[in-house]
């Protein structure tokens, strides 16, 4: 039996590792093809590497091809799969360095091609100095440009997680940074009032934040980026980072006849199966959102790892399912911490929920304890039932990971009333005697139980 | 209508505040008697005040008698209730300063007398230099002794939360500190293997930790403490802090005929009612443990506040219940963080559960991220069902409050298998891509699903 893995990052290599754990080399041959030079690395760490906070690229690599080989998993980097024949059970593979193409047969196939940065038509350019940050190669190229060209002005397009993290990286490197966001607030994954708190912090860092501004084109000079053209004028740029989200890489899958979902990602069953003997996992797939009960595309390493593990267990003869996501995400912008789980107000409305919200200001520690700083907690609950639909946190320290308690509550369908009784950890260095989570739940409970005139 | 509150700290004053919120002064007169000089303070902050980390006593006071008065709640400090007549609906109150005693009638009574430090018979002494730390007065007296007598050697008796926190306080003040614990490991609320990690950290701080040592008496000289006599020899002491836990203050309640439970605490119903129109809350009561399904005595400010709030809502004409506890607790010893929730291995066995455990070593942040330090996570699950019964964490930073995610999982009766799919917050500054909680759940799942030969 032979397993072929297309894509050597989190999802693909997790699948390979789990399959190997359950089936020895005599039982299952495992062969992974990766288009790039690196496998099994933390793409999430790239902004911190660019900013000089962590070393790279080696430190970001969890496991090298050599280490996989020792574990009985053959990895071929710089090998691009260019076709899949589901009937013949073969893939076509091009060795990018040797320029050779050959066919390889499989019994099981893991499709884990990831996602690629969205590049609007205006971003099509051969000019130097325009970057996405998805792969270690992207990171290397951007660092090389910064080191060699020493640009003074950076423009980051897109105020989501990647955009905000990249803006911080550029500030840390001493550039003047403009962050351009089309919406009224950055960080559109949280509600606008919470986004406004993030906006204030971004500006405090010395980043020029331009919201409500639409990019219209890139201006180049002598084959290099010179400025970003927007509906509010041109912004000079010696380097541009585009952080407008990613789209699942599905071209190969589509050509092979694998099913795509409504989000554009590959559709799988709960066991990560896309077709008989064909498994898909990671950023190229769509996942089930447990609260909206819709398919969503949430390209995060944590999901990719879990999905890959599930596929690998199933390939290995075990039984595992991926239970879906609830939209938990955390990010850090210097000392600002932002977190969310469940549905935002807008997502809840789109999913058909009538909601109430409650927002509280509290502190991370007992007010009298050294290091106590403010944090804002927002709760989104179903109006007539009080079921917790989502929560958001903006704070300075010891704030973001508090979202996990909310996440487990969302996962279990708790109501805000039930939550007021939760037995959470209390000691003065860790929380006020009423934890911010409990205060938020109490305030939300009051709104839920208030009579509603319809 | 008149509400009398006995005991002016967390439980009593929370009840008063909630009752007042729902019923105005014309509808309900509220009168609170407090034996000591202070009301509504954070007893949990006392060790940090002793250690000089926070100011006191004022900073530890959440609300003064004057502030309560403004809110329509009359508070009499230095007033000791010496008797309750449930038939006559009166209490006997002694003004400790004026020396007068009088009777006061009530319609509702809140009994919130708290708990007192356990003092074994060997601890009965009039000698100076022996302290418990339960009230702000205790804290003041201890600070005064330290400032005036400048003892060189402190002995802290009892290696639980208070003992450990007080040992740290004494070290911070520059004393030589010996911490004496009868059991094999300190912090008996966590399993012995986790306690051993705590022991190592205590010793690293320069605290002389003596485990397996039983105190037999106090040696005094010239009316002052001189040494602590143990079964392993005498330990010189210029100051002794006794941290052997607390017992509910129930003498008054018992005399009045209020029901006591098996733990010695006052027994109430879910609404915190001990008798018709009589409510009890806080450290003087016992509570329901949701996992062992037994009554337990867990004297923590967080429960006292919640119970007091429940009593106050009910007195105010609302409806509220206290859902019980699951044994969550967190503590900090310099940079060591210790947390637990649910049942420990021993508690689980006592409650009749057959258990399996899994312990993992991970880090608080992605391994490559600056500030990544080790943390140890232990999971205790029911052997045949995989239901999460408890969890414990020992780490250096960003560790203890992770217990809240476990706490919510325990609260909801999740299995460790279900937990492996949880959507927890991931970003390199906050967690490895597999959060330590997920790694622990995965390891526990493997143990649970392993066939058991009986």
Automatic annotation (TrEMBL), chains A, B:
Which Pfam families does the UniProt entry name for this protein? Pyr_redox_2, Pyr_redox_dim
Q: Which UniProt keywords apply?
A: FAD, Flavoprotein, Oxidoreductase, Redox-active center
Q: Does the record's keyword annotation contain Oxidoreductase? A: yes
- Every FAD/NAD(P)-binding domain range: 2-295
The cross-references to InterPro entries, in alphabetical order and at most eight, read: FAD-bd_OxRdtase, FAD/NAD-bd_sf, FAD/NAD-binding_dom, FAD/NAD-linked_Rdtase_dimer_sf, Pyr_nucl-diS_OxRdtase_dimer
Q: Which cofactor does it need?
A: FAD
Domain Pyridine nucleotide-disulphide oxidoreductase dimerisation positions: 330-432
What PANTHER family does the record point to? Answer: NAD(P)H SULFUR OXIDOREDUCTASE (COA-DEPENDENT) (PTHR43429:SF1), PYRIDINE NUCLEOTIDE-DISULFIDE OXIDOREDUCTASE DOMAIN-CONTAINING (PTHR43429)
Its protein name is NADPH-dependent 2,4-dienoyl-CoA reductase/sulfur reductase-like enzyme
Upper lineage ranks?
Bacteria, Bacillati, Actinomycetota, Actinomycetes, Micromonosporales
